Amino acid sequence: MTNISLYPNGRVKPSNTETYEHATNGLLTKRADLFNEANRIRDRLAEIRNDIAALDRTLGTLGFKGDLNAMMPRRPREVMFAKGELADAVAQELRHAEGPLRSRQIAAEIVALRGDDARDQKYLADLTKRVSKVLRIMRVNGEVKCVQDQRGNYTWVKA
């Protein structure tokens, strides 16, 4: 692999070679720009959520009694997995595991497998809830077993 040079500000230095280093540097620069943009968007979304919460509190202070959630435009349902896809991914992770796994560990492995951002804690927490629900259904169907570890946490193994 080539040695990539960086400026002190973290930007990738352009190279003067006849190889693919120019393309590599350009792609790395674009990747860094997109990553920074994603962080800015995530921060802006958090600001917007805080502003909405402040508006809700103000409306309540002014005596508004209506249902705020019913007045909001409906968001389309976010489909993360096709039907049965998450259950298949969970079963595959448990099949390849060397020991019992917690729901969060399974979710983290699925995030890594899909190539999603493992640092997105909200996404990981949401996926962990979904994995837990799938595991409960799989337990009822006899596909997995639930075992408590020494700390009282539930861990899962293939039945």
Which sheet architecture does the biggest sheet show? 2 strands, antiparallel
**Average of per-residue pLDDT values:** 86
Beta percentage is 5-15%
Helix content: 55-70%
Number of strands: 2
Unreliable parts: none
**N-to-C SSE series?**
HHHHHEE
Computed over alpha carbons, the radius of gyration is 23 Å
Q: Count of helical segments?
A: 5
Task: Please tell me what the overall shape is.
Answer: flat
Decide which structural class fits the backbone: mainly alpha
What is the fold's blueprint, element by element?
Layout: H1 21-61, H2 68-71, H3 85-96, H4 103-114, H5 121-140, E1 144-148, E2 154-158
Antiparallel strand pairs: 1-2
Helix pairs in contact: 3-4, 4-5
Structure commentary:
By secondary structure, this protein is mainly alpha-helical. The protein has helices at about 20-60, 70, 85-95, 105-115, 120-140; strands at about 145-150, 155-159. Helices cover about 55% and strands about 5% of the residues. It has a two-stranded antiparallel sheet. Strand 1 and strand 2 form a beta hairpin. Helix 4 crosses helix 5 (about 120-140). The chain starts with 20 loop residues before the first helix and ends with a strand. The model has no long low-confidence stretch (mean pLDDT about 85).
Compose a concise summary of this entry.
By secondary structure, the protein is mostly helical.
What are the main properties of this structure?
mainly alpha, 56% helix
